[in-house]
Structure formats: C-alpha cells, structure tokens
Specification:
alpha/beta; 8-stranded mixed sheet; ProC C-terminal domain-like fold; about 15% strand; binds 1,4-dihydronicotinamide adenine dinucleotide; binds (2S)-3,4-dihydro-2H-pyrrole-2-carboxylic acid; 2 domains; elongated; Rossmann fold
C-alpha cells in the first residue's frame, strides 16, 4: 500500500465518472507524475461516450473486473447515491486508504462511518478544473498525516488552485462560493446577452459579446493582481454609462443582497444533502 507514502505513486480509484469525475481524471491523466499517480481506475455503471473516450485515449482502466484494497478512493457520485456506493466501496478500503470525496454536503463523519475509512478528505472542486483553471478547497480528518495532505494537494493541483486544509465547518460555504460559482458566472453571461437582445442586438452577436467579455474579465483578473473592486472602478467613469447600470444593479441591496440570500439558501441545501441521501 502506498496511501500514506508520498515518494511512491498511488493507484487512484474514482467512483463516478460524470462531469466532475471526468474533469479530475483529465487533470491526473495529462500529467501522472505531477499528480503522484501510477494508475487511474474508474468505476461507473453507465459510462458516457466522453468517459469511454478518455479511458481509451489516456489509459485509465474503466470498470476493472477486480479491485484490491486501494491507495486513494475518490467519490464523485451524486450525494443521493452515496450510501449505496459506500457499501460497495467499503470492501476496497483498509486502514491506509485515503478516501477523498467531492460530494456536496456529505460530512467527514458520514464518509468515515459508511466507508470504514479513517483517512478522509472532503474536497470541493469546480468544473473549470477540466481545463486546469479550477479552484478546490478541502478539509481533512484528524487521522490524515502531513504526507496525506501533501498527496491530496498534488492530486487537486492538477485541477488548478488549491485552498486548504480548512476547518470542515467552512465546506458548505466553500461549496456555494466556488463549487457552484461557475453557474452564477454563466448565468451572468446569459443575462447580459438577453439584455443586449432586448436592446436590439442580434442573438449571436449578443452572446459572443457577453461571453468574450466575461472571458476577458477573467483573464484580466488572472494577470492583474488589482482587486475586483478596483478593476470594477477602473471601468466605471464618473457620471458615465457603467455607473448608470451599476446603480440599478446595486439599488436597494441589489446584487449584493441577492447574492447573500442565494448563497445562504444554497448553504442550507448543502447541509440538508447530508441528511436526505
Ligand atoms: N458538477 C459540478 O460542478 C460539481 C459537482 N460536485 C460534486 O460531484 C459529484 C458528481 O457530480 P457531477 O459529476 O456533476 O454528476 P454527474 O451526474 O455528471 O456524474 C455522476 C456519475 O456517477 C455515476 N454513478 C451513478 N451511480 C453510480 C454508482 N453506483 N457507482 C459508480 N458511479 C455511479 C453516473 O453514471 C454519473 O456518470 C456530486 O456529488 C457533486 O456534488 C462538486 C463540485 C462541482
Ligand atoms: O449543484 C450541486 O449540487 C453541485 C455542488 C457544487 C456544484 N454542483
């Protein structure tokens, strides 16, 4: 077993090869050495064409017929099927197995009691991880050693930036900011495009303008350490056009208030997920 031996590469067994599972596997498979990975096994009873293609092209083993106790077990199924998956997964877990879950809401306590593992990581990645531009925050159980934390850092770094280990009590907040965050950004693109169409722009042009604007703003933030607030102010001329739009967006609590309410509601849903699955 190599689960807690950083100088040896690990066998990673991923359960759930959907959108998030594929994003992670892509990251590991494009540089196995950097991720500290020897072999990637992927278990999914309904593999998509995208998953089959990834495994065929990059050499991951899809639905292996035999699984020995594993070094690192990654759980990337929907929280609602966790209990079913955990009863199978428990067969492949021993005292050195590191269990890493990316499932929203499922606590370290539940991960331990249902898989039998003691070394547990609760992580929250996001879909930009598929292109190495993600951010993942994680927390660890008390049985994890500094070497385990280092190994998790290497695994998650293939998706982009990593924050952690954090106090587990913060993971629901992390989920609603960065785990779900790409959806808010895509909604912003949709809303900007719809606003442009309402002002007479042709649909395709409005979509390209909105999409490229958000891409450009992201790249600018990536390359310029100026705060988001100051970057916003740099666009907002005194008595100008941007200010007219922002005053509408910020009126009566505006977008800040909507965001706080939305994130609080989503955080409550994340807490509920651990109970209703
Ligand atoms: N999609 C996202 O942006 C993010 C998702 N997550 C978490 O990742 C997890 C997976 O989400 P998605 O990838 O979006 O869902 P998905 O629906 O795309 O993928 C789930 C996969 O699990 C497979 N599956 C179902 N039952 C299974 C079983 N018994 N054994 C093995 N595989 C099984 C399905 O065939 C499917 O391919 C969720 O728990 C979610 O909270 C976390 C961060 C971001
Ligand atoms: O919507 C969800 O439940 C998952 C968690 C973070 C992003 N997608």
């Amino acid at each position: 077993m190599t689960g807690s031996t950083m100088n040896l590469k690990s066998t990673v067994t991923l359960i759930g090869g959907g959108r998030m599972g594929i994003a992670m596997a892509k990251g590991w498979l494009c540089d196995l050495d950097a991720a500290g990975v020897e072999t990637v096994n992927i278990i999914d009873p309904s593999p998509s064409d995208a998953l089959r293609e990834l495994c065929a092209k990059k050499g991951a083993v899809l639905n292996p017929t035999e699984i020995a106790p594993v070094d690192v077990l990654i759980l990337a199924v929907k929280p609602q099927v966790f209990s079913k998956v955990a009863s199978d997964a428990a067969k492949w877990v021993n005292e050195t197995t590191l269990v890493v879950s990316v499932m929203a809401g499922i606590t370290v306590d539940r991960l331990g009691s249902e898989t039998g593992a003691t070394k547990i990581v609760r992580a929250m990645p996001n879909t930009p991880g598929a292109v190495g531009a993600g951010v993942t925050a994680f927390s660890v159980s008390s049985a994890c050693t500094p070497t385990d934390t280092q190994m998790v850092n290497a695994l998650l770094s293939s998706l982009g930036a990593v924050e952690g280990p954090l106090d587990e009590a913060l993971m629901d907040a992390v989920t609603v900011v960065s785990g779900c965050g790409p959806a808010y950004t895509f909604l912003l693109v949709e809303a900007m495009a719809a606003g442009g169409v309402a002002l007479g722009l042709e649909e395709g042009i409005a979509q390209r303008l909105a999409r490229q604007t958000v891409i450009g703003a992201g790249v600018l933030m990536d390359q310029d350490p100026t705060s988001a607030e100051d970057l916003r102010k740099a666009v907002t001329s005194p008595n100008g056009v941007t200010l007219a739009a922002l005053e509408v967006m910020m009126a009566e609590g505006g977008i800040n208030d909507v965001m706080k309410r939305a994130l609080r509601t989503a955080r409550d849903r994340s807490v509920e997920l651990s109970k209703d699955s």
